[in-house]
């Protein structure tokens, strides 16, 4: 669809950003709501992030989504932060206000929680134990998401045990911490396993993790969405586990961003999922 000189502008800032499905996702919603607007992929290196954000603000953008490696820098740049951004130390949404202030929000945790609820049903995970792989920004969002779903306990597994301990110390109750060599112990009794690392992503090595200790009724979730079926999910499904791919989190975390940028709350639909899956197949 064409846009006018009054179009509402937003985009996604990352390095690299060519692989991002966010432009396709937001374009789908812009068309569905007949909004005069555009959503633009913006490849920005680390050292240019602050200057580019300032330029976009001056250019009249409503705001931007922020992806790797800039989420912590976005957090530091924002004048105001929502609770989720404070809890995770990262922002994936920057909103530019008329008074010149920049607001940072984090919708990753809410997006993951919504994806799990959609795939599994509400309250399915209540009272169960969860294990998260990784200790970076995605893992922080995963801990926050799970803290809202009524789980009994959370365990964090990471190659750098000290980094995992630092992450665990950010939350109450404090998750248990395991090194990578202790992964089998962490998987015992787990009802939900989440890969919050980049392992398995296109261009990255596969996740080196045996699933033998994982109970048969455990759900396996991978936040990676490219490829949609990672090696972890393939092995888990072959072993009889229920799996949740990363596309649901991507779609649901985008809902509040679109609403903030364009003033309409969009819906996550089967048609949107089908369009994004098609884009992944032909990407």
The CATH topology label of the largest domain is Rossmann fold
Number of domains: 2
Distance between the termini: 22 Å
Shape: globular
Describe this structure in words.
The protein is α/β, with parallel strands linked by helices. It folds into two domains: 8-106 and 251-281, Rossmann fold; 109-245, Rossmann fold (3-Layer(aba) Sandwich), CATH 3.40.50.720. Helices cover 37% and strands 19% of the residues. The chain has eleven helices and twelve strands. The strands form two sheets. The protein has a six-stranded mixed sheet with strand order 2-1-3-5-6-4, with helices on both faces. The chain has a six-stranded parallel sheet with strand order 9-8-7-10-11-12, with helices on both faces. The two termini are 22 Å apart.
List the helices and strands and how they pair.
Layout: E1 8-14, H1 22-32, E2 37-43, H2 49-58, E3 63-66, H3 71-77, E4 80-81, H4 83-88, E5 93-96, E6 102-105, H5 108-120, E7 129-133, H6 137-146, E8 153-158, H7 161-168, E9 176-179, H8 183-187, E10 192-195, E11 219-222, H9 231-238, E12 242-244, H10 247-262, H11 270-281
Parallel strand pairs: 1-2, 1-3, 4-6, 7-8, 7-10, 8-9, 10-11, 11-12
Antiparallel strand pairs: 3-5, 5-6
């Amino acid at each position: 669809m064409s846009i006018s000189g009054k179009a509402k502008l937003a985009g996604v800032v990352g390095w690299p950003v060519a692989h991002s499905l966010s432009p396709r996702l937001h374009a789908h919603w812009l068309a569905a709501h007949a909004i005069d607007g555009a959503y633009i992929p913006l490849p920005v290196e680390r050292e240019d992030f602050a200057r580019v954000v300032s330029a976009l603000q001056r250019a009249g953008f409503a705001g931007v989504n922020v992806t790797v490696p800039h989420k912590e820098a976005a957090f530091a740049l924002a004048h105001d932060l929502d609770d989720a951004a404070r809890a995770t130390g990262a922002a994936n949404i920057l909103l530019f206000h008329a008074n010149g202030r920049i607001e940072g929000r984090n919708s990753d945790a809410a997006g993951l929680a919504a994806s799990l609820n959609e795939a599994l049903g509400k309250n399915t995970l209540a009272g169960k134990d969860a294990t998260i792989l990784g200790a970076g920004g995605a893992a922080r969002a995963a801990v926050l998401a799970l803290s809202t779903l009524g789980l009994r306990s959370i365990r964090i597994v990471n190659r750098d045990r000290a980094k995992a301990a630092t992450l665990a110390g950010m939350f109450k109750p404090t998750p248990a911490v395991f090194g990578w060599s202790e992964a089998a112990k962490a998987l015992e009794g787990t009802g939900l396993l989440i890969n919050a690392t980049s392992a398995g992503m296109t261009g990255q090595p596969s996740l080196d993790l045996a699933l033998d200790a994982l109970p048969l009724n455990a759900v396996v979730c991978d936040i990676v969405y490219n490829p949609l079926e990672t090696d972890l999910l393939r092995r888990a499904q072959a072993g009889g586990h229920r799996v949740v791919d990363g596309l649901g989190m991507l779609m649901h975390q985008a809902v509040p961003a679109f609403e903030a940028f364009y003033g309409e709350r969009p819906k996550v639909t089967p048609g949107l999922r089908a369009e994004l899956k098609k884009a992944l197949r032909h990407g």
